[in-house]
Amino acid sequence: MKTKTEEDGWRGFLERCLKVKTVKDLEAYFSLFLTATERQEIAGRYLIVQELLKGQKTQREIARDLEVSIANISRGSNVLKITGIDLKKFLED
Fold it and tell me: Which burial class, exposed, middle or buried, applies to 29 when counting CB atoms under 10 A from its CB (0-12, 13-18, 19+)?
């Protein structure tokens, strides 16, 4: 019998996400698994990525406007450098 791993758990979590039909239900689902702080961190990362993809502000301006450290912006920028074009297009929509 196969032992469940973190990878199995992550895949299962993602597969369930795909089955959620509404934003309200998705919010309830994430509230079950994520603390308020974790949800805020994800929201912040999302905003960072969106600003980086727009390309209209410097990293320092983004950090100032979002009230986050320049290190957080740099991390987001570095990840975007290795992100495939299809995912970038999806994020820009």
Answer: middle
